[in-house]
Amino acid sequence: MICAIYRSSKKEGMYLYIEKKEDFSSLPEELLNSFGKPQFAMLFNLKGEKQLRIASNDEVLNTIKQQGFYLQVPPLPENLLNSLK
């Protein structure tokens, strides 16, 4: 399955994966408001050999099939993680 990946115009490091390019109909309005205007980044083949960095291709594919989208949020800064321990 080829999905479209968009970066957030409001939050650095936040990405949205959807099944069809420019089809935001499955997204909750609250998500679109906090995400900002989606900026197209690329098309990606989730069934291909290339793997995503943050999540597994299967996890993204299954989430898109279940809820219509996958939201990738940026990881917490390393020093913040250490301060919470």
From TrEMBL:
Domain YcgL: residue ranges: 1-85
Top-level taxon of origin: Bacteria
Protein name: YcgL domain-containing protein NCTC12872_00483
